[in-house]
Structure formats: structure tokens, C-alpha cells
Design brief:
Number of helices: 6
Number of strands: 0
Oligomer: single chain
Helix content: over 70%
Strand content: under 5%
Radius of gyration: 27 Å
Structural class: mainly alpha
């Protein structure tokens, strides 16, 4: 490893240990690492946005292609930054209105075609000859029906309706538990990656020189 690579590994290991120090308690090293992480992330993000968005889509469009229509979305983007100035913060509402409305117009059809309609087709799929497929289909139908009853608040959840809604709550908890487990697994994979970096790149290659 070169001198530059060794310095980089030591810096990365030091910052990693600073972040791990929060396990003990909140301390100055953790706060320093947190501020460095946020500051470097913001600086990197601003640099990427300047070179990959602002230069080709705004500056080049105006100076080379003479497309002056890009001034309008550029002004809307500047209005968002004016949120930090109380006297003209009201201008940011126009930008947020365009942004939220446009995002909703693009996202809602994608969600309907990508999530809602495939799930609806899976729920309405006819029964097959195999016992396993039919059992899965019955479970899906039971889950959809009971969850819908759980969110049907026009009837009081007592007796039969209350029992069905409790079954729906059981399926909802299974769904939330699966989502939470997936999130935990993703975070654990990041933790394992940091431990592998500390053991292999830092201790084995720079300290022990193995």
C-alpha cells in the first residue's frame, strides 16, 4: 500500500471508531465525526449536482443551445432556497406546489401500475389444480379480506366484525415485521462491512502488515 492509501485507511478507521463511540455514550468524538460526515456529504452532493445537473441542464442549455425555457425551473429552484429568508419565504410555496403536484402526477400512475394492479391481479387469480397453489391463494384472499375489514370503520368492531378485524391486524403485523426485519438485515450488512474494513484493511494490512 502507498503512503496515501495508508493515510486514507487510518482516517477512515478513525472516523469509523468515532461513530462507534456513540455505543458507549454521546461524546465529543462522535459529534466531530457526525459533523464531518454531514459536511463532507453535503459538499459532495452539491459538487455532483453542479457538474451533473446545473452545468449541462442550465448553463449549457442557455449558453450553447439557447434554450431560455430552463430559466423558469431555475427560478423555482432558487425560490426553494429563499425559504431561508423569512421576508421572501412565501415564494418557496410556489416551487413546492409545482414540485409536489408534478411528483404526485408522475408517481401515482406508476404506483397504480407497478404495485396496485399486480397485487389486484394476484388476488383475483383463479384457483389451480395444485394444492399448494390453492393454499397460497386462500391465504392471500383471507389476508386481503380481513385487512380491508380492519380498515372499515363504518361498522363497530365487535363480535364477528371484531374477530375478522383482529385476524387482519395479525396479517398487518406480519407485514410490518417482515419490513422491519428487512431493514434490520440491511443495517447489519452495513455494520458487517465496517467490521470487515477495520479487521482486514486497517488491522491486517496497515498495522500487522500481513
Amino acid at each position: 500500500m502507498t503512503i496515501g492509501e495508508i493515510i486514507g485507511v487510518w482516517l477512515a478507521a478513525g472516523l469509523t471508531l468515532m461513530m462507534f463511540s456513540f455505543i458507549y455514550r454521546d461524546n465529543a468524538f462522535f459529534k466531530l465525526g457526525e459533523h464531518l460526515y454531514l459536511g463532507i456529504s453535503v459538499g459532495y452532493f452539491v459538487n455532483i449536482q453542479y457538474h451533473q445537473v446545473l452545468v449541462p441542464d442550465v448553463i449549457r442549455a442557455i449558453r450553447v443551445e439557447h434554450d431560455f425555457w430552463v430559466i423558469i425551473p431555475s427560478l423555482l429552484g432558487i425560490f426553494i432556497l429563499l425559504r431561508l429568508v423569512p421576508s421572501v419565504a412565501w415564494l418557496s410555496r410556489m416551487s413546492f406546489a409545482f414540485y409536489i403536484g408534478g411528483f404526485a402526477g408522475v408517481a401515482i400512475p406508476n404506483v397504480i401500475h407497478g404495485y396496485f394492479l399486480p397485487q389486484l391481479a394476484e388476488t383475483l387469480r383463479p384457483f389451480n389444480a395444485g394444492l399448494g397453489n390453492n393454499l397460497n391463494q386462500i391465504v392471500i384472499l383471507l389476508a386481503v379480506f380481513t385487512v380491508l375489514i380492519f380498515f372499515f370503520f363504518s361498522l363497530e368492531h365487535k363480535r364477528i366484525v371484531g374477530g375478522i378485524s383482529r385476524i387482519g391486524l395479525f396479517f398487518i403485523m406480519i407485514s410490518f415485521g417482515a419490513s422491519f426485519g428487512y431493514t434490520v438485515m440491511a443495517r447489519i450488512s452495513l455494520l458487517i462491512g465496517r467490521f470487515q474494513f477495520l479487521l482486514d484493511d486497517w488491522i491486517r494490512q496497515t498495522i500487522l502488515r500481513l
